[in-house]
């Protein structure tokens, strides 16, 4: 989206690339294997990470978990920090019942894992298994009523951005329920039942990693590194991503525009296309 000029604050010409993983080659942390993400600077107002070398501040990187490959780590930044911040914005507690819309997606799958690691009961909503609510067959989220014995869920994390689904899920929130939204991909306007919202003290919050700095997001990643090493959070299998060399970046972007597949840019010696 940024490469297409989808963000008004991007200054062009600009090297894109928000997430990264690599080895520090100069500075006080030389030799460390690290990973990170852009925040609101890299790829927007300064060059991003689709390059062989990048300059970042010392506090904008986190140590790469030893059991995570460079390719896996390079795909963690935005989805993992978005998932973590969404749960924080929704003030999720271990006792909460959390429904995740788009639970099988990149962000949604990390929301599921993080919420489960907190001790929450998680109800997954997706168009494909594994799921507790099959969106393709139940766009009104009727299953949430029976799954919660009519009480409703404490939290909904929406990672899809489809207003009709958000409206239906909001109606399944329990008293004091919270909904966090990370996307408006399928529409920019949401109609909700205001009387239901205020009488049941429900709340709606947005979550945007571009509101945060690279050092702030590096702290988020560092806080989750131990959970990654322990296996409490499992990154996507490297085989899910098709690897392209840096010289093939334009082709990777073209394929991404076609709307299918996942792609990661790696340095030549690591690239197996």
Automatic annotation (TrEMBL):
Gene3D superfamilies reported for this sequence: Medium-chain alcohol dehydrogenases, catalytic domain (3.90.180.10), NAD(P)-binding Rossmann-like Domain (3.40.50.720)
Highest rank taxon of the organism: Eukaryota
One Pfam family, short name: ADH_zinc_N
Domain Enoyl reductase (ER): 5-265
SUPFAM superfamilies in alphabetical order: GroES-like (SSF50129), NAD(P)-binding Rossmann-fold domains (SSF51735)
SMART domains: PKS_ER
InterPro entries recorded: ADH-like_C, ER, GroES-like_sf, Lipid_raft_assoc_Zn_ADH, NAD(P)-bd_dom_sf
Record-level Gene Ontology MF annotations: oxidoreductase activity
Protein name, UniProt field: KLTH0C10538p
Record organism: Lachancea thermotolerans (strain ATCC 56472 / CBS 6340 / NRRL Y-8284)
Lineage: Eukaryota, Fungi, Dikarya, Ascomycota, Saccharomycotina
